[in-house]
Design a protein that fits this description.
There is one protein chain. Helix content is about 35%, strand content about 20%. It starts with a strand and ends with a helix. By secondary structure, the protein is an alpha/beta fold. It has 14 helices and 17 strands. It is elongated, with a radius of gyration of 28 Å. The longest helix has 23 residues, at about 150-175. It has a six-stranded mixed sheet, with helices on both faces.
Amino acid sequence: MGAKVAIIGRPNVGKSTLFNRLVGKRLALVDDTPGVTRDRRPGDARLGDLRFTIVDTAGLEDADNASLEGRMRHQTEEAIVEADAVLFVIDARAGVTPLDAHFAEVARKTTTPVILLANKAEGRAGESGLYESFSLGLGDPIGISAEHGEGLSDLYDALKPLVDRIDEEEALAAEGVEVEEARTNIEVDEDGDPLEEDEPVGTTERPLRVAIVGRPNAGKSTLINSMLGEDRMLTGPEAGITRDSISVEWQWHDRHIKLFDTAGIRRKARVQEKLEKLSVADALRAIKFAEVVVITLDATNSFEKQDLQIIELVAREGRALVVAVNKWDLIENREEAWKRIKDANERYFNQIRGVQIVTMSGIQGQGIDKLFESVFKAYEAWNSRVSTSKLNRWLDKVTINHPPPAVAGRRVRLRYMTQAKTRPPHFIAFASRPEQLPESYTRYLVNKLRETFNIHGTPIRFSYRKGENPYAVKKKRKIQ
């Protein structure tokens, strides 16, 4: 697992910029607006030969515990408790502020090692703030520029002993050696044999990537918190709390899953602010790289136009799909509500017929097992493969029952069919004049494929190829 390092500090000192610098990607949203980051966001950091988990956190603010800022601060405090080391970041150009001094006092009381970073220290403008930061009592400050990558060698020197110690302890623990015993005799394992430096610690299977998406305030973060059994995600009555797409590891019945909590996706016309555009772009990116997408609907107001547009987007991206109807505990007449949902499913889900719809309550933790049974069924359908022989026997039957239409007195012939790829399933049919086949006939073939081979909850790609006319080829050869 490796060392875990948390970045903390007041808002707008460059924590997310440093996070992006260390992970080598623009994962965290960065903007001039204070308080962009709200949840804890982990990432795989690389600094020279060091490998560790870096955690971006919300800006520390002195606010009431019940307020949004207070709940954000609680998330940061949790990150400090879980971390093996803390990077306390200040703005060298602004100097030490009363808020910096207040939270530096909190940092001094923690048992977690704290490294003081004076960000934006490039040039002479940051010199006074760098010297002033000695007054915080957190040791010698390190002047860096997260934007330009300056001072990272000094940060490496400060982090290396901490990261190496954690890696050493984890390696020894994996070998069954007590850490206290290993420190007194580091060359011996539990059997008294010498430790091998390159002995593998062990591996874990690749987790299934599941993105939780939907409109704002549909209960996505609350649902993930119920799965994890802790308040990992920031939640509240306010719409649009989540901004970054946050990934967390989870295990369901010995199956490893990587959950992605995403920002609520509103109608494009309503997204005006730059920050919300960045949040929506991050959510769309999570959909693109997921394997299964769970669309969370609000049971009290389900199947709005925006819900259908999100479903259409998932179908275009070719991802397996499950629909979670959340807040089911708030519905009084459930029989009538379920009938309305089934009618909407039959009317609107043209591209993904047979998609699994699960009713649940995220806040009460009801329906989670049923939801993930459907997730793995959809994943299996997404990976399904049908042999060519079965496909062509099937093609003969369906074309006899419902032949392709005749165009200008000549019937289009479907000669042969094969599956080109999976994830999602992609089928190719070879036809005499595919450009003359109507879209309705393609829908007929796709629906029959779903029914016959049980490919539900995933988009199906279906394309045609035109075979060469053997008579035209023979005539061409004769001319040559």
